[in-house]
Amino acid sequence: MAQTAREMAAAGWPWGARPVDVAAVHLVKRMGILRLAPDSDAPPIHINPWVVPILSGQIRLQKPPLPYWAAAILYRIAGVSEATSRIIPAALGALATLLIFDLARLLYGRRVAWMASILWVTTYIVIEDYRLAMADPYLAFFTLGAVWAWVRASIISDDGTGEATQDKPGEKLRVPFIRRRTPLLMAFYAALALGALAKGPLIFLHVAIPIVLYHLCFGARLPKGLIGHVLGVVVFVAIAFPWPLAVLRQVPNARTLWWYESAGEITGENLENVRGWWFYLMELPQLALPWVALWLFSLAYPLLRRRGRAFFPVGWYATIVLAFSFVGQKKDPYLLPMLPAEALMIAIAAVPLLRIARRRQMHGLPGAVVAAQVLIGIGWAAALPVLMWPMHRSHLAVALLCGLTMLIALFPLREMFAARPVHWFAYQAGAYAAVLLVFCHLVRTPMENARSPAPISRELLAMADGTHTAILESKLPEEIAFYLPLHPPCGVAPSNYLVVIDDRGGVARRSINGHAPPEVKTSDFEGWVPDATLAAVRRVEMKSAPGDARWKVYELEVKRTGFAHAWESLTPELAIGR
User: Fold this and answer.
1) DSSP H helical segments within 254-338, as ranges?
2) What confidence tens digit (pLDDT) does each residue in 178-195 have?
3) Which residue from 87, 30, 20, 88 is spatially nearest to 59, judged by alpha carbons?
4) Mean pLDDT over all residues of the chain?
5) pLDDT at residue number 302
6) How far apart are CA 302 and CA 293, in angstroms?
7) Which structural domain range is residue 414 located in?
8) In the 3-class helix/strand/coil scheme, how is 429-455 assigned residue by residue?
9) Is 70 exceeded by the pLDDT of residue 271?
């Protein structure tokens, strides 16, 4: 995503962007994967990179443009870096906390709202995925925003009051802001449109499921207001439709590719990241970390309570998991839009659990759940020195920091033994926050830095002299390209090209079965360099990626044909002067 945003930012602001000539494209299917590939028989296309996204000089339409636009705007303002690539997703995660608080307060009261917000900001997968430069945080945020706007619009009556209850049964909730339905309905349709611009029509499924369950579980009426709905539809069309229409005018095969990327996941045409139906069921405990004990209890709580309102978040959660289990493509980030339901269902189960725990002096099932959560925090803190020791040179600092973190993780024990469950929850959340902070900054960050392609990118750039040896830009993996100049020097008809292969999957398989890396085949690189025939291929050993590493560098020796051969025969002075 970041590299495509760099291309946009480099072209200037959208209204004054420098047009770019790129190769026309046609659909190509290799190994079951459908992609747009350059069509050498068609004339180039004159495009604005903000309208038709490009990557390494080729059209890229696998994803809608909103994440590219957001990152490109920030690049124009603050420069290109890893930090600016992550700021907006992180900000969306923070804003989602406010939406979860208000949604929980409207439906279940302030106690659940506070607890759901705390659960949200101390859930590991939220901290992990909302700092990544990808489209899923955008989809998750706008899904939550659409659900929040619809629910708030449905509880507003004509006099500006609400129909949801707070902590006391029968107490009416005064809506403190946005007292009219029309702005909320417009916000709902705007969120739908922005979600569609972030990751396509998938947002309709993510939004429809919680809205239908909300009306079934709460018996709420549909939001009234014809004017609000009409204006909302106008807003949706104005936001969502111009970009795909503009692309369809310039890229005729875009419709087929979009069908493959969206509906193809359901029909089985799209075979990327295909996993078994059970994949998400195995991942659910990991998505609930570190609140696994409360999560297990929350799954059974609606059956114990037997109240329709308690079924809403569990139904939302379970229906999304069930629906996406039948989709071939599966990755953990695809479930990000479901995580607010997880926070809500744990919160509404935790409030009565802690109330009963206080009455029973932490005995029985409530005490067991609380004890399990305390042990998870202590166990996580105990694992930190094992993880951090080989990563940091200052072992004394590691020991002191881990000792402090373990001390914080032990604080909830006192409140548990004192049978103060509310205080226990606050201390437990604080302990988890401390462990998360240390883990993310001193374990995850060094692990990511060790896997970063930045060192191999620098080494690759030093090897390319830009005249006789060049980097083959059109085949660069996006992660590598981000750390290179936007357009690496390619000289004039160089005889050697450096290419990078992402062999992550192969390395993982060989680490299991113990096989050696396969021998390189010249046929694997045929056609990579236009107007040239491949003479030889050899593996280049990199200091930053030795052995059977994920990133493998190959040098392609080519012989020119056609016009390129004629140009190569000119004097070096003339060629260099051009």
Assistant:
1) 254-261, 264-267, 279-287, 292-305, 308-325
2) 557 889 999 999 999 999
3) 20
4) 85
5) 85
6) 16
7) 360-450
8) HHHHHHHHHHHHHHHHHHHHHHHCCHH
9) no
12: left (phi over 0), alpha (psi -120 to 50) or beta: left
Cα separation, 561 vs 375, in Å, equals 68
C-alpha to C-alpha distances, 178 to 106, 153, 160, nearest whole angstrom: 13, 9, 9
Under 8 Å between Cβ of 114 and 52: no
pLDDT digits (tens, 9 = 90+) for 126-178: 999 998 889 999 999 999 999 999 999 998 754 445 544 334 444 444 444 45
- Per-residue pLDDT tens digits for 66-120: 999 999 999 999 998 888 999 999 999 999 999 999 999 999 999 999 999 999 9
Q: How many domains does the chain have?
A: 4
> pLDDT at residue 493 above 80?
no
Residue 349 falls within a domain, yes or no? no
Q: Do the Cβ atoms of 446 and 392 come closer than 8 Å?
A: yes
Question: Measured in Å, how far apart are the chain's first and last C-alpha atoms?
Answer: 33
Q: What's the rounded Cα separation, in Å, for the pair 426 and 354?
A: 12
Whether residue 306 is found in the same domain as residue 319: yes
Dump strand ranges (E) for 15-129. Answer: 20-22, 25-30, 33-38, 45-47, 54-55, 58-59
Residue 273 and residue 171 share a domain: yes
- What distance in Å separates the CA atoms of residue 290 and residue 125, rounded to the nearest whole number? 9
Look up residue 282 and give its two tokens: 């195995």
- 340 token code pair: 């607010």
Helix, strand, coil in percent for the chain, rounding step 5: 60, 10, 25
348 inside domain: no
Is the predicted pLDDT of residue 268 greater than 60, yes or no? Answer: no
Q: 146 and 10 in one domain?
A: no
Asked whether the beta carbons of 81 and 64 are under 8 A apart, the reply is: no
Q: Tokens representing 84?
A: 């600016």
Looking at the chain, the whole-number percentage of residues with pLDDT higher than 90 is: 43
229-236 CB contacts, 8 Å cutoff, 24+ apart: 229/185, 231/182, 231/185, 231/186, 232/185, 232/186, 232/188, 232/189, 232/190, 233/189, 235/186, 235/189, 235/190, 235/193, 236/189, 236/190, 236/192, 236/193
Give the residue from 424, 450, 476 where a domain finishes: 450
- The residues with which 59 forms a beta bridge, in sequence order, are 54
* Pairing outcome for strands 33-38 and 25-30: antiparallel
29 vs 506: CA distance, rounded Å: 21
**pLDDT value at residue 167:** 40
Residue 561 scores a pLDDT above 70:
no
| pLDDT in the model for residue 526 | 81
Grade residue 569 by pLDDT with cuts at 50, 70 and 90.
very low
- Evaluate whether 349 touches 357 at the Cβ level (below 8 Å): no
My answer on whether 73 and 184 are in the same domain is no
Rama region for 520: left / alpha / beta (φ>0; ψ in -120 to 50; rest): beta
The reply to whether 150 and 203 lie within a common domain is: yes
- DSSP string covering 34-65: EEEEE-TTS--EEE-TTTS-EETTEE--SS-S
**pLDDT (mean) for 249-271:** 70
Residues in the chain: 578
Considering all CA atoms of the chain, what is the largest pairwise distance in Å, rounded to the nearest integer?
92
